[in-house]
Amino acid sequence: MEKSGAQSTRPEGNTPPDSDSSPRPVMKGPAIPLWRFWLLSVGVCLGLFLSMIDSTIVATSLYSIGAEFDTVDSVNWVALAYTLAYLGCAVTFASFSDVIGRRNAFVVAYVIFFCFSLACGFAQNLPQLIAFRAFQGIGGSGLYSLTMIILPEVCPHQLRQYIGSIIGIVIAGSGALGPVLGGLLTHYGRWRWVFWTNRASGPIGFVSLTIFLSTWPKADQLPTIQRHSGKDFDYAGSVLVIAASVLVVYAFQIAGEVTESVWGNAVFIAPFVAGVVGWIALLTWEHVVETRLDHRFAPAFPISLFRNRAYAAGAASTLFLGYPYLLLIYLFPLRAQVVSGKSALGAGIMLLPMLGTSALGSAISGKINSKKNVLWETLLVGACLMTLGSGLLTTVSGAKDDSKALGFLAFSGLGFGLSTAAATILVTVEAPPRQQAVAQGILAQLRVLGGSLGISTSTIFVHAEAKRYFAGILTERERATLGRDGYTLSSEQWEAIHLAYSESFRKGMVAAAAVSGAAVLLTLGGYQRRRGGFEDQRQAPMEVDGSNETSGASTRGRDVARIA
Fold this sequence. Notes:
The protein is mainly α. About 70% of the residues lie in helices and about 0% in strands. The protein is built from 20 helices and four strands. The strands form two sheets. A two-stranded antiparallel sheet has the order 1-3.
């Protein structure tokens, strides 16, 4: 194994097709002044904060949204439309930025995000709101994936070990703060303010975009990397990524929306099988691109990354830990409102222990990995803590257990924070410089894929228990108007509601513990005794992919340019 962290990602015998024996020219790392980097980080991280908080801010508002539109069966699509668009476009935006530049792609993402945030607040019916949320998610996916690309690329070498902590704190903090802010706005105003606070003229968005544009580095302060033309864009791979991801999640969401069992029916089987076929087609296509067409396309989902055992384990852990995280974010506030009788604000506040420990875990992860590479151990401990927290939450039943639940949430938050920061750092250590952008995009996509499955399966748990406990006690109309007409229900009906939502939460936590346990096992497979580290990485040159110093030719028709 090579000593260099950047070089160690290429196992012997697995040299990428575009490699050659000729010496490669090196490119100088970014020379951005520290003050400019920190200000730019503020602008970029504010964008990440807004995009992440919008993935969870509706968690405590779904109850009110469902009541206004007289439906509880389809209201989860308000959350899922955002995360599915987020999921489908994260890698695509990463590849798109290789064509139009990081700055331009970030601005495009910002404009899409804020325009449709405003539109969501004016939605007149549920289908409109769901459609606007999907477009909002497209913009949010760009803010998310591009943040994880821009910061490591422009970061001075001596600060690179802190990037994972910064990103991890923002992701973990905004994810748990979203339900609190959503509850606050819903409690003192209307759910529409959840979206209006993100409008393009809003102070946070305006400040963020202004800081970003005004502090973007000059051309000579940016690293020189490979720039692709529109012809190099892997359109087929991008479409397959979106289709494969969305169809699998859609199948589980549909399974939870209908009252009868659909596991053996076409309404579930058709999209699920299509999604699985989509994943097979994606992997087959990307193999062809890497082995035969690498001179024509930049892979949207490079499978060569997964030949690195450490990266593969980190990606698997990211996928599986995204499931319990978003499942908790959406299912716990619903339980708090229905079972414990909390307001939207109170339900959001109950997630604060998760918020605090998530940020703490991200900071700890960055600190302990700043000098020595203990990323595998960090990922393993994070997965174990998520498993512990989810397992303990299965013992929570009625309102009397609320205090216990707060402590158990802290374990889950700490585990998620440790894992998120460690996975982000892992890419900068393990992925080749030419693939770090798409490697970060893949992690972003996998985290949201796991979370989207968490949201969709939460629907299955709730509806299964509702069918069990509500039979002969509650009509569909009474269920749909719980938020407005709940005071007219009898004590027997309220008891059935409490039992149904309490049991659905318990079963959700059983599933979360099982999935987190699988993450522990998958993380174990990523152990490497000899590892690269930040000291090696600082000394390693950043390569220009495929350039041949001897011939002086450009990489198969692609341009080497600044990332601006």
